[in-house]
Model the fold of this input.
Amino acid sequence: MMDKYLIVTDLDGTLLNSKHNISDFNIQQINQFRKYNGQFTIATGRTNKSVEPYIKKLNIRLPIITYNGGQIYCPVKKQVLYHRTLPITEELCEYLKAAVTFSEVVFIAEEQIYTINRGDVCRDFERKENLTTIEVNWNELPKQVTKIMLMSKARKDLENFSTTLTDKFKTLTLVFSQMEYLEILPVATSKGEALKELINLCQLTDAYTIGFGDNFNDIPLLTASDLGIAVSNAEPQLKKVADHTSQYTNDQDAVGHYIQGLLK
Done:
């Protein structure tokens, strides 16, 4: 019986293939795992709205972790159970204005996406997540957001800016969720911290947690899990902290293959 197991997986680059779909094999193995009373949910950087199609396809009943740990959302009650917010201060905006020279700056609040300078990377983000951004001026931004994203193909510029912000602001968490995305979150916000909250909310303190991921933002998820698994296509830094690295990539159904082995 699987009733003592809780599987928590990242979506993009992990459970989803390169076309951002969930394979039939992954769905079959997840359903089989739950048939034997296993608990399953997701932990993603996406918004609640963006993950709705995957919630339906997987029939997820447990609360999910979204916004890279900024929220815990109950898909059954359609209710936010846990929410971390980030104040948009004048000082932070002054630094972000400098980032406009090399990146597209995006703010997410109340499931709405705002941008200062919508470009090609942001348009790709919109297509991938089936969302639409609203272009605004700096004085039109909400006072509190769930997260900020800097989107750019200039990775080195993003890395340098991350170092600058980390040195200046001690109340921020900065993490790369994809090669082109640098995310700014409230301090102590991560998938790992949210997993601890979820376990308490759902009274799953006795569960053996298995976390799956592929990128830097999954490091806290894997370290907070009893068993952290990196997919084969994961970033080298994630593989270093993982307890196990799958021989399979996200396009080869790494999550499904692990579950299949667990059920044998």
Q: What stands out?
A: The mean pLDDT is 96. The two ends are 11 Å apart (CA to CA).
